[in-house]
Specification:
single chain; 66 residues; alpha+beta; Dodecin subunit-like; 3-stranded antiparallel beta sheet; 1 helix; 20% helix
Length: 66
């Protein structure tokens, strides 16, 4: 089995968990056989002293078809 890894940034106005789900669902639109996700980092955009946007940097692994 051969696995390829891509790196993406997901975002959400709700939570870090939703930002990860955003990255996975975006990848799933063009990639099949996703096997895992690794969250490399989390950041947030602050506006008016509140979190306006949650961002996650992730690596997504998927099997390459032969």
């Amino acid at each position: 089995m051969c696995v390829k890894i891509i790196e993406l940034i997901g975002n959400s106005t709700k939570s870090f968990e939703d930002a990860v789900a955003d990255a996975v669902s975006t990848a799933a639109k063009s990639v099949r056989n996703i096997t895992g996700v690794d969250v490399l980092g989390q950041t947030a955009v602050i506006e008016n002293n509140k979190i306006a946007e949650f961002r996650v940097n992730v690596k997504i692994a998927f099997k390459i078809e032969s």
